[in-house]
Amino acid sequence: MSISHSLLVREVQALRARLSAGGCGHDATELIELIGSLEELKSAACAVQAEASAVFDEVRRKERALAAVPAVRQGSGIASEIALARKESPHRGRTLLGMSKALTAEMPHTLARLRDGSLSEYRAQILVKETACLSRADRRFVDEEICADPAALTGLGNRDLNAKVRRLAVEIDPAAVVERARRAEADRHASVRPAPDTMGYLTFLMPIPQAVAAYAAVRKASLAARAAGDPRSLGQLMCDLALSRLTGLPDTGSPEQAPAVPVSLNLTMTASTLAGGHAPATLTASGIGQEVLPAEIARLLASRAISTGVGAWFRRLTVSPVGGLVSMSAKQRFFPSAMAEFLAIRGAGICSTPYCNAPIRHFDHIRSFAAGGTTDAINGQGLCEACNHAKQVAGWRQRVINAAEDRQEVETITLTGHRYVSRVPEPPGWREPRFRETHPGFYALTS
């Protein structure tokens, strides 16, 4: 690293320390100016991050080319290193690296507006995303049309910016936009993510004609049920009918309760609280992370599943005195091996790489099997596919750094020597021991 870069790092760290010290005045005008200046500072920092990411990619690829690494493998792990440094998931790291390379190589005006604070990183990403289908020359034209003049961005909302860029892209190269739309159909998929209050979002990404057709069919059936006297709201009906049609399960017809579904409850609680206790439970399914539920809601889910005959499975998990998940009963296995199932439950179904929130796809030896690593819970972890591939890059290392009986901690050391630590999540029902003073000089462990 050059002296100038070393000085820049120290200057950034000094500025961060100054900002972390806090302290704001109470003058309304100055407060608004401070908020605006900090927003511009964030944009400028994102511009520097983009330039640094693009240069890092170039440096790493040159190093590997000199080491005779095949061209197809020269980019392996680069996005993951950037993601760890930015405390982002590997998927987000790939997105940020791609944007950085586009900004530095093809969109100089967008990068300049990011640097001077006229654009936020999110708005710059809109420009990069909507011009991705264009040739380099056409992309540069859009970049100049939209961002050459900072004043042209004043007062322009995100939606207006998106529409303006998309309109230009269609005018310049309609065939490229059509081809992009055709390729997008291959990316159709379904996903689920948690929502507040033990709810969840089930999302299907598909071409707009198919999406409208599916929505219209469920809406039409729901309106017919409402006309026939069903007491549920239109939203409740559409949700319940869609679930019934997708799963084949019977519709309850109740405004208060959603249809019962088969559930698997991983109940992590002591024997004394197993019947009527307050320790929470988790709701799991293959390929997604767990959702923590209050014990009462978990018991209601199980009761409804059993009473309606759709089925419920229970698994008893054991917690060590320091909160580590150490064993489980071997009933109703969802994975080919009990060990893989145990690792998935211990890791909450989520990749153990720091900042990654992708579902577990692979079960991995922390210390590789070839290097003498054992196949057990201490040396095992669940990873997503991208992270498992990233750690195979020569120079990446991992090791367990805590006692076997505690919750597993794994240290990842990247090619640059930077270290990142991940820890398996606390099992449901566990909380750190806390002591309170009962009277002067005497403390008791809280229950």
Q: Major beta sheet, specifics? A: 5 strands, mixed
Total number of helices = 15
Low-confidence stretches: 267-274, 327-336
**Proportion of strand residues:** 15-25%
Helix content range: 40-55%
The strand order across the widest sheet is 5-4-3-6-7
Number of strands: 14
Q: What does the overall shape look like? A: globular
Average pLDDT level: 81
Q: Tell me the span between the first and last alpha carbons.
A: 53 Å
By secondary-structure content and strand pairing, the structural class works out as alpha+beta
Q: Could you state the order of secondary-structure elements as H and E?
A: HHHHHHHHHEEHHEHEEHEEHEEHEEEEE
Q: What Rg do the Cα atoms give?
A: 27 Å
What is the structure about, briefly put?
The chain is an alpha+beta fold. 46% of the residues lie in helices and 15% in strands.
SSE blueprint:
Blueprint (H helix, E strand, L loop, with lengths): L2 H18 L7 H39 L11 H8 L4 H17 L1 H8 L5 H10 L5 H12 L10 H15 L1 H11 L4 E7 L3 E7 L2 H20 L6 H14 L15 E5 L3 H4 L6 E3 L7 E3 L1 H13 L4 E8 L5 E4 L9 H9 L15 E4 L14 E4 L1 H6 L6 E4 L8 E5 L5 E5 L11 E5 L2 E4 L2
Parallel strand pairs: 3-6
Antiparallel strand pairs: 1-2, 3-4, 4-5, 6-7, 8-9, 10-11, 11-12, 13-14
Can you describe this structure?
The chain has 447 residues and is α+β, with helices and mostly antiparallel strands. Among the domains are: 28-187, no CATH class; 188-259, no CATH class; 351-423, no CATH class. Helices cover 46% and strands 15% of the residues. It has helices at 3-20, 28-66, 78-85, 90-106, 108-115, 121-130, 136-147, 158-172, 174-184, 208-227, 234-247, 271-274, 295-307, 338-346, 385-390; strands at 189-195, 199-205, 263-267, 281-283, 291-293, 312-319, 325-328, 362-365, 380-383, 397-400, 409-413, 419-423, 435-439, 442-445. The longest helix has 39 residues, at 28-66. The model is unreliable at 267-274 and 327-336 (pLDDT under 50).
